[in-house]
Here is the input.
Amino acid sequence: MHENEAKELHQRRLELEERNKMILQQLQELIQQIQENDQKIQERDQQIRDYYRSQQSTTFCEYIEGCHDTICYELAIQPNGRLETNESTT
Here is the structure.
């Protein structure tokens, strides 16, 4: 009886080791997919940042009647992504 139990335990251990190998392989594949997706997201994020940096400055001007002045607002996206507003009067 002891010998049969030992064989069963050994067989069960082999099955569990095989199962663990399969799970480990699946985890490695998932990690690789996550890394690839993360890389794609970073590339897309950089494309978006580059686009907005290329559109870095936009100026809106408004003539104020009665004052004979024009107020201009310049909107600029800084390299850190923050929006900066500059106001000037002419």
